[in-house]
Amino acid sequence: MFCVTPPELETKMNITKGGLVLFSANSNSSCMELSKKIAERLGVEMGKVQVYQEPNRETRVQIQESVRGKDVFIIQTVSKDVNTTIMELLIMVYACKTSCAKSIIGVIPYFPYSKQCKMRKRGSIVSKLLASMMCKAGLTHLITMDLHQKEIQGFFNIPVDNLRASPFLLQYIQEE
Known about the structure:
Layout: H1 7-15, E1 20-24, H2 29-42, E2 49-53, E3 59-63, E4 71-75, H3 82-98, E5 103-108, H4 126-137, E6 141-145, E7 160-163, H5 166-175
Parallel strand pairs: 1-4, 4-5, 5-6, 6-7
Antiparallel strand pairs: 2-3
């Protein structure tokens, strides 16, 4: 299901207050903390979403507010259970896509499987697979930090902002 917005309504949606929705993808405490700090800095409230595991370990996502015509930011930190983290993100992105979000931006400080970015013997380039899955699910932009190899950006057919942490770390060390 894909939604097409008539041009005359598109300008109205861009002007309306609340054209931005910020979601935290999981209940991991570090993800919630980061999401709350970002929301506070932007002066917006966190979006309402439920992300949980069924008894059989299937991930369930329920977006609890309208994202139609809005710019959606999904913050996802990687927990110990990397594969569950990835599924949470993919399902959440797809839920926003099918709910007609204008754009879906993934904020993933650590990109999982980024070390698996080169062919090794009979292996596979898993970071390319993950990039393809994220784009197919509906991600329109990715913001991440310190990719293992900057060439990973080429695996995506969407814009990727690969932020560098080193300037902030250097500043912190110098100040302390």
